[in-house]
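EI: anyone free to look at a 268-residue chain?
SC: sure, send it
EI:
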Amino acid sequence: MIARGLALLLAIGLLTVSAQAQQAPGGAGRGAGPAAPAAATPRWPDGKPILGSVPGQPVGGWGAGVTSLPRGKLKEIPFQPWARAVYDMRQIDQFEPHTRCKASGGSRQFSTPYGTEFVEVPELQRMYIMDNGGPNSYRIIYLDGRSFPENLMPTNYGYSIGRWEGDTLVVETRGLNEKFWMDRDGTPHTAQLKVIERLTRTDFNTLRYQATIDDPGAYTRPWTTNDFLLRWRPGDELFEYICQQFNQGPELMLGSQEDVDNTRFFVP
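SC: here you go
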């Protein structure tokens, strides 16, 4: 009888707590009100959107949001036959350079689970995109109206020039090499690649990303991705990260191989 009485009291208590949670403002129950709307897009004194942390406020960063450029439209991608074969192979054997601490250009920079930071320096007319994990590297976007240099030396990040179209930052990148994957699915590219990215902070918590891939070496025509949304993560900031330490994903570093000979030059 005592045990049955305790069980009844416990059940009543749980029902009471549940009812209170449903009635509480902002609670998770069915009676909860709608989530508070996000704050408006922050802006610099000249009216341009701030894509990173607001000066004088706690820092933050953007969570991963772009994992596969063809996502949602794979059948529409104008692959050349060899590029489609490479793409299909990489879905099986994900021997990705980024997981071996190599810097990765294109949208791959926005796929790290540790997030990315935008650091704009108005007096230099530059923006830095910081990769908070993996290779601990960064990309520079020049905002001073310059033109692309001739005879660019191909690199993992390439050479990025940005311009504002209303509230959207349009970034064109050239001079990319073939040593990286431009997304986590290994969507192929060649050294002819040009990437045009469009970044729009639609409100304080949301960054919309879209990319156009122009690579006549791998595709029969330029193509544009669907929109991707990155979410603001308050409190995120650069931290010490030792790439490969305590690695728990050896298949991402070795693929189907048992080991890697790092003494040989490797192009994925």
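EI: Residues 60-237 form one domain.
SC: 👍
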